[in-house]
Amino acid sequence: MASRDMAQRLSNWQALCKRITQCRACPRLVAWREQAAQQPRRMFQGQTYWAKPVPGFGDLDARLLICGLAPAAHGGNRTGRVFTGDRSGDFLFSCLYEAGLANQPVSVGPGDGLELRNCYITAVVRCAPPQNRPLPEERDRCLSYLVEELALLNKVEVILCLGAFAWQGILRALAQLGHAVRPFPQFGHGNTAQVGPYSLVASYHPSQQNTFTGKLTKEMFLDVLHRALRMVRT
To answer: With a threshold of 0.85, does the pTM exceed it?
Structure first.
């Protein structure tokens, strides 16, 4: 019975990923992601960019979900995997490896052997946005994918939100699943909230702007990550 349930969830997840990667609902984002592929950074010259929406990635039985803002133009938009191919991803996967949630500390791209354990990573918006700033209407068009993901990942108990945009996006998605809270709990590094059956934990986003300036250190992030893991029911 359990194997049939997993097979069905895997099939549903694959169908969701296919619909995500085919989406062209936001003209501004479509244009930007494709422009980035046509104008690669010097270090990526000659590489073929994914240049499509990026689905989530990880363990479908995960109890911990990590949610970010959106793919980076020369990160996930290039590699086709969320938080992969940029400095934010380098920081994140190194920490996940130290916490025992990944089998290796680096994420290069699909086919590199990376596996996540009890962890799934996704984003509120699936296309790379200009200046990393999706418009409210772009967020709202994309939100249904996050709602479907949350419904499909039926063992998730704790959600780690990377940045205020992810925090607010998760709260909006949970409201669509019948877990509305008003007013929204305040975002702040280390803040927590209980929303329906989910425990939310907030962290600063591991962007270069935060990690290079010391606003978010590896020790700070690992502390929040371990706090989230302690909140998972055993």
So the answer is: yes
